[in-house]
Write a structure and sequence with these properties.
Blueprint: H1 2-30, H2 36-44, H3 46-77, E1 78-79, H4 83-89, H5 98-109, H6 114-123, H7 139-164, H8 167-175, H9 180-191, H10 193-209, H11 212-216, H12 222-233, H13 236-260, E2 279-280, H14 283-314, H15 321-356, H16 362-368, H17 376-400, H18 414-438, H19 442-450, H20 455-466, H21 468-484, H22 487-492, H23 500-509, H24 517-541
Parallel strand pairs: 1-2
Helix pairs in contact: 1-13, 1-15, 1-16, 1-17, 3-7, 3-10, 5-7, 5-14, 7-10, 8-9, 10-13, 12-13, 13-17, 14-24, 15-18, 15-21, 17-18, 18-21, 19-20, 21-24, 23-24
Amino acid sequence: MLEQNRFLKASSWVFSLLLVLPILAIFYASVGESDEVFGHLMSTVMGTYTLNTALLVIGTVSLSLLMGIPSAWLMANYAIPGDRWLQWALVLPLAMPGYIVGYIYTDWFDYAGPIQLFLRDLTGWTSAAQYWFPDLRTLPGACFVLALVLYPYIYLLARAAFMEQSLTLTQSARLLGCTPTQSFFRVSLPLARPAIAVGASLVAMEALGDFGTVSYFAVSTLTTAVYDTWLGYSNLNAAAKISAIMLVVIFVLISSERYSRRKQKLFSQNVTPDTITKSPLRGKYKVLATLWCWGLFTIAFIAPLGQLLIYAWDYHSSSSVEDFAQYSVNSLYVSAVAAVVALIIALLVNFYKRLSGRAASNVPIRIASMGYAVPGTVLAIGVLIFLTSADHIINDIAKAMDWGRPGLILSGTMFAMLAAFVVRFSAVAIGSVESSLAKVSPSLDMAARTMGCNVRSMIQRVQLPLIRRGCLIAMLLVFIESMKELNAALLLRPFNFETLATYVFNYASDEHLEYAALPAVLLVLVGLIPLIMINRSLEQSHS
């Protein structure tokens, strides 16, 4: 039994350190003398990149707050037509890739698009010089599109926070003379601030790491700088320096969010489901609330998905079925392997924590979960640095042993992309297994020990059967996230290797999304699965 405990401890620490090495490699590669490329970027365009990144994050978070908080408040407290269905439908835009929504809205709002054509037919205008129309291919346009697909982060957390607030607090505010609006700003919103802050930080990190949308909108940010520096200049050192800057920004975002609410404490008890009552809205307030919630859902999900389905129907004969099948197989294979590896790591670190019981056993879990906060583009650079160094060591050893040079067997193959997926999404599997394992009573472990079971037998016969559903969910979540990952796949894919995400993005960037509409629809449908699971878990927690 002691040897089995040592195996769990050693494997947990080894895997967790391997997962954090690509992140450490970024800082290691960024230390040292500045090269010409990085110096040129710093003296010319880095200021613009940094400013655009800051404006993108601020704009996206602001618009997401504007979309998410009112929707969450209405869904948690008021009854509007279709609210039982709408309360989880408002989460579905999270399944839409931002660059797909950006392509569709750009197609609609361009000079030759249907909206401006209708406007000119209606007014008799004949040229763009006769009227003003907003240009969507701008930084504000990118903020708007990203907010449409990212506001559900804030909506989900804010709605849960509003539903958990005690009804007596708002009733007391009303008795003291506050209007519903005043009670919202003075009582409900401050109580929900921690949840909203977490949602806003998630939106900020997603906006900071986005590449597909900003690239399509031709908005230069730090993420596009990393991509261009590596693929354009073939300069890994400069890309590592920019990536290190982005990691520092992410650390500052997370730290400032936690520091801002360091002294805030919440002692309100959760309400029971029997006491949750929704107030009916009447008159213009009912109309406005209905238009707001249903309108947001329509423009963020229904309209883009409907356009994708139209594209898929109209252009199915022009699409390459063979390419679609091959790239689907590529995505399925890489995502499935990543899901299995991530689950194995999640089981090792969680079982070590449970069986050890020491404070130090939490460290491998926290280390292994760090990759989820790193943007895919930045993480890809770290994986490249780490695996390239490993390739050089392998080739030097092979040469010294007269085995010949095997070449780039790690950084130049599918292994690099697989490694990035595991590093980034292991946190998802760890969280799912951890929550499932926490529901297993420790008395079952003690009973198994009393009956003579060793560690291996107890895990196989007691714990694994009880957390089987959590393991399945963990694999499914990692699989779906890997299927949709674009940033890391673009930088790390081998030659002549495409996934569904890179396949769709290539067509979108070439202004031909119509020919890749079918795989785009598949990506959206795959992304709906974790959202349905999240909604079901929230419903179970409030039932």
